[in-house]
Amino acid sequence: MADTSDPTRPEPVAAGGRPLTAGVAMLATAVAVVSVLVGGLLAAVALTGHVFGAWRSPESLTPGLIGAAMLGTAPGLFAVARARAWHEARSLVRPMAVVLVGLFTVSLLDAGHLYMARGGSIVPVLFSLGWLFVLGTLCVCAVIALARQYLTPGRPPGPRGAPLPGWSKPALAVLGSAWLGIGTGLLVRPGFWAGFVPWSVNRLDAQALGVWALALGVGVLGALADDELGRTGPALTALPGTAVAVTVVLACRASAVDWSSGPALCLVAMVAGLLLAGLGGRALLARPLAARPRG
C-alpha cells in the first residue's frame, strides 16, 4: 500500500497534557475577529497619514503599529482553534492575555485621555467607548477561560517531540529579552523610555507600545522555555505576520521615524528577528520529523 503520510505536516500531538478547552478556542477566535476589524481600521487610517484611535496621538504611526500588530497576530489566533491540547496553543494564548489585560489596564488608568473623556467628534468618541468596553469584556472572558483551562485535569505528558535547534536558542533568548525589557520599561517608566522611541509619542502611546513589546517577549521566551517545535505552531504563524504588517506601516510612515537614531536601528533588527524566527520555525516544522535537528 502506498504511503499516504505527508512529511510537511508536524508530528501528531503527544498523548497526555491538558486538552484545549472550548472556552480558550472561542476566546482566541473572538480576539482574532476583533483584531482583523479594529486592527485593519487602525492600520488603514494610519497609512493615509491621519491619526485615529481611542486617544489623541501626536503621530499616526503609533495607532498604525498597534493595528498592524493586531492584524499580524490574527492568523495565529485563528489557528489556536485547530489545536487539540493546551501545550500546542499556550505560546500564543499567554501573550494574547498579556495584550488584553495590559491594554485594558493602561486605557482604564489613563481614561481621562481617551476621547470619551476629553470630547471631540462623534466617531473617535464612540470608538473610544467601544475600545474600553470590548477590551473589558475580553479581559473578563480571558480570566475565566484561562482559569478553567488551568483547572482542567490532564493526563501525564507523553514523550517530547523535536526540541528547538541548539543554535537557535541564544538568538531567541536575546530577541525575547530585548522585547520583554523594552516593553517593561515603556510600561513602568513611560516618561523616561518614551524618549527612546524614534518618533513622537505621548504617555498612552508609550504604554500601549510597551504592552505589545512585553507580549512579544513573553511569547518568544515562552516558546524557548517549552523547547519543542510542535508546541509553537500558532505562535510561528503570528510572528512573521506581525513582522510583515509592522514593516508595511513603518515603510509607509517612514518620514515620521528618526532612522539615524540607535533605537530605530534596534527596532529594525528586532522586527527582522521576529520574521526570521517565524519563517525559520515554519521551515523546520515543514521538514520530515527524522530530518529535524535534535538539539
Structure, explained:
With 295 residues, this protein is mostly helical. Helix content is 67%, strand content 0%. The chain has 10 helices and no strands. Helix 2 runs parallel beside helix 8 (203-226). The two termini are 34 Å apart.
Looking at this protein, list some descriptive labels.
295 residues; mainly alpha; disordered N terminus; disordered C terminus
In short:
With 295 residues, the chain is mainly alpha-helical. The protein has helices at residues 22-47, 61-80, 86-109, 115-118, 122-151, 169-188, 190-193, 203-226, 233-252, 262-286.
Distance between the termini: 34 Å
Task: Give the strand tally.
Answer: 0
Major sheet summary line: none
* SS element count, helices: 10
User: On the 0-100 scale, what is the average pLDDT?
Assistant: 88
Query: What Rg is obtained from the alpha carbons, in whole angstroms?
Result: 20 Å
Strand-helix topology:
Elements (H helix, E strand, L loop, with lengths): L21 H26 L13 H20 L5 H24 L5 H4 L3 H30 L17 H20 L1 H4 L9 H24 L6 H20 L9 H25 L9
Helix pairs in contact: 1-2, 1-5, 2-8, 2-9, 3-5, 3-8, 3-9, 6-8, 6-10, 9-10
